[in-house]
């Protein structure tokens, strides 16, 4: 078993794995293996499903655990619903497997969340939002979810203007189907492992008040949640990479004590 768990990095809706580049380079400099996962729902296919996103993350986790490597799943925004669902059955607690020198499998040790929510088993992403899109995006007849407000202001308002504009050009088409369906693939994995949550206090896509409310609901259901805050937009991995990395490393240390 390797000394440090592998970090599986799951981006949010509309976003590519590149959004993790700043963070992964800093983590890799400290000998962490980082595996960013490209979600099928952002590949330009309007038929891509939530289940396919879950399978993509699950396959990345299994590629590590079957080699005996423990894993921490790091999720952002919509990626939280995906990552939480993907860990089903891959944690030591749920499999009732005590640590053993004969145990050659790795396990998911915990989830690191930022600007995300706590999905419920059997509940689709849209139903978790109350059954309809928020004002920031709409369901389009094209089969894609369309952002309805200036995306730089929504996601990257605390980045320098040119850098924020650059990330806007990197946004992907987001399959609407993945956001609107797939409750049968949804799983409340945050109940199975400890969770560290980074609340983004300047978030305009997912207001911090809503983040805090959901954290409290999770805590009230006896979930093991550790809360930290960062003065950041919806994208702390871009605007506050060092603080984000420090948070991830602190979380991993707590999972591996």
Automatic annotation (TrEMBL):
Family matches, as SUPFAM superfamilies: alpha/beta-Hydrolases
Cross-referenced InterPro entries: AB_hydrolase_1, AB_hydrolase_fold, Sec-Metab_Biosynth_Hydrolase
Record-linked Pfam families: Abhydrolase_6
UniProt domain AB hydrolase-1: residue ranges: 7-246
Domain of life the protein comes from: Eukaryota
Name of this chain's protein: AB hydrolase-1 domain-containing protein
Origin species: Pseudogymnoascus verrucosus
Taxonomy of the source species: Eukaryota, Fungi, Dikarya, Ascomycota, Pezizomycotina
């Amino acid at each position: 078993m390797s000394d440090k768990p592998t970090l599986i990095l799951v981006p949010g809706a509309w976003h590519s794995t590149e959004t993790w580049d700043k963070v992964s380079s800093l983590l890799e400099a400290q000998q962490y293996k980082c595996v960013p996962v490209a979600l099928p729902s952002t590949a330009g296919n309007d038929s891509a499903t939530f289940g396919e996103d879950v399978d993509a993350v699950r396959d990345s986790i299994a590629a590590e655990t079957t080699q005996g490597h423990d894993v921490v799943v790091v999720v952002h925004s919509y990626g939280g619903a995906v990552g939480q669902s993907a860990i089903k059955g891959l944690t030591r607690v749920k499999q009732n497997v005590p640590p053993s020198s004969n145990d050659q499998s790795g396990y998911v040790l915990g989830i690191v969340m930022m600007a995300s929510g706590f999905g419920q088993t059997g509940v689709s992403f849209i139903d978790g939002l109350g059954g309809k899109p928020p004002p920031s995006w709409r369901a389009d007849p094209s089969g894609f979810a369309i952002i309805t407000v200036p995306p730089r202001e929504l996601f990257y308002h605390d980045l320098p203007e040119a850098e924020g504009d650059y990330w806007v050009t990197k946004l992907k088409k987001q399959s609407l189907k993945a956001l609107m369906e797939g409750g049968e693939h949804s799983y409340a994995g945050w109940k199975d492992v400890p969770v560290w949550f980074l609340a983004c206090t300047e978030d305009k896509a997912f207001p911090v008040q809503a983040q805090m409310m959901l954290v409290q609901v999770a805590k009230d259901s006896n979930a093991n949640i550790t809360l930290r805050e960062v003065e950041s937009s919806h994208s702390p991995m871009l605007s506050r990479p060092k603080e984000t990395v420090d948070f991830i490393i602190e979380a991993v240390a707590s999972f591996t004590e």
